[in-house]
């Protein structure tokens, strides 16, 4: 004869409920504590994972070429990344510091002079006359020109200070991310197994497929972002050098930076077009304008193609996920948004198949 289940008394129920609540509360406190401790490292860790996933195929090739010396390959890749980041930053800092010192010296000695604008600037449609008037005022009475735009200059200075502080923090985070990337590359095989185990735990038999999809999506977005940025910077550099724009090399580096962080390159290209129109004949200036406008718009064509290549997904899903993710959570959202939308799309298709079979 089977034992009948004993009824739970109110006292036992209350005791079990209190014990469960205490356990859940302690678990929540522990998780919250862990989150706040790890919070400063979440962004660098996420970037380190993204960079490591994107560069892992290169790491495997270099490891093979170096005689299966995995640590040496990871060290070389990490050193190259640090050089790529710190080299242009040091170059820019040196140039900016020199220009600031020169400007401060001229201001102190009252030697700052601005050349008169060319007459043809005034003939430009719509914007020509205002630019000519302000340029002329700055050339003849710099102090009055500054007073005219004093409120805007104060706001601009606050924005520049805030942007400079944010840029320094972003650079430090990026350096930490590169170091994390190097550590992850050394342990790439075990990291991949861990990702597969997590995927299997969350999604069962579809875990491996979704994990591989996430990896492929990150690499596709990296191709779309970095590949297009390099192409844009190369084409813009050709235009700068051919037109004889001052500091063409520096402008090329700035263009690469803007393209990588997904800022519109037009904020650099449009002023260069205005400069070329003010200093060159109409025909070469028009050719330069057409070239630069094409450079600024080329990412709209290449980015969807490079992002979706090699993925068993519609290009629209990856592209919408990347752009929507960037709008939602900044540049890291390019990768996170694309991965999340790709996973959601695959899970939705799986649910549709199961529904139709049932």
TrEMBL record:
Keywords, sorted A to Z: Cell membrane, Membrane, Transmembrane, Transmembrane helix, Transport
UniProt subcellular location: Cell membrane
Q: Which domain of life is it from?
A: Bacteria
UniProt key word Transferase: no
**Which residues span the membrane?**
20-38, 44-60, 72-93, 159-186, 224-243, 249-270, 282-298, 318-345
| Membrane topology classification | Multi-pass membrane protein
Recorded coiled-coil stretches: none
Matching entries from PANTHER family are given as: TRANSMEMBRANE PROTEIN, TRANSPORT PROTEIN YDIK-RELATED
| Family the entry assigns | Belongs to the autoinducer-2 exporter (AI-2E) (TC 2.A.86) family.
Q: What is this protein called?
A: AI-2E family transporter
Its source organism is Methylomonas rapida
């Amino acid at each position: 004869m089977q034992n009948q289940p004993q009824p739970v008394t109110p006292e036992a129920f209350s005791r079990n409920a209190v014990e469960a609540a205490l356990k859940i509360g302690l678990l929540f406190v522990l998780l919250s504590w862990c989150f706040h401790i790890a919070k400063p490292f979440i962004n660098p860790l996420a970037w380190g994972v993204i960079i490591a996933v994107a560069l892992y195929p290169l790491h495997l090739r270099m490891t093979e070429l170096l005689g299966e010396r995995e640590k040496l390959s990871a060290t070389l890749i990490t050193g190259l990344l640090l050089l790529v980041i710190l080299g242009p930053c040091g170059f820019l800092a040196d140039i900016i510091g020199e220009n600031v010192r020169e400007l401060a010296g001229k201001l102190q000695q009252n030697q700052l002079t601005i050349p008169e604008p060319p007459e043809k600037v005034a003939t430009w449609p719509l914007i020509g006359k205002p630019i000519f008037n302000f340029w002329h005022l700055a050339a003849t009475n710099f102090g009055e020109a500054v007073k005219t735009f004093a409120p805007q200059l104060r706001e601009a200075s606050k924005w520049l200070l805030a942007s400079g502080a944010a840029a320094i923090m972003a650079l430090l985070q990026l350096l930490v991310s590169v170091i994390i990337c190097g550590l992850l590359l050394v342990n790439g095989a075990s990291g991949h197994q861990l990702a597969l185990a997590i995927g299997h735990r969350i999604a069962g038999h579809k875990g491996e497929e979704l994990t591989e999809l996430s990896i492929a999506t990150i690499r596709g977005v990296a191709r779309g972002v970095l590949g297009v940025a390099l192409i844009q910077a190369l084409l813009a550099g050709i235009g700068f050098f051919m037109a004889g724009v001052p500091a063409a090399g520096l402008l090329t580096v700035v263009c690469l930076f803007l393209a990588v962080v997904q800022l519109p390159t037009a904020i650099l290209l449009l002023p260069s077009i205005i400069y070329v129109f003010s200093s060159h004949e109409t025909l070469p200036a028009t050719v330069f304008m057409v070239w630069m406008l094409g450079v600024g718009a080329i990412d709209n064509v290449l980015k969807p193609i490079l992002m979706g290549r090699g993925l068993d997904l519609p290009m629209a899903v990856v592209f919408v996920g990347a752009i929507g993710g960037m709008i939602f959570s900044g540049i890291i959202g390019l990768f996170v948004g694309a991965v999340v939308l790709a996973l959601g799309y695959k899970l939705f298709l799986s649910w549709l198949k199961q529904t139709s079979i049932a």
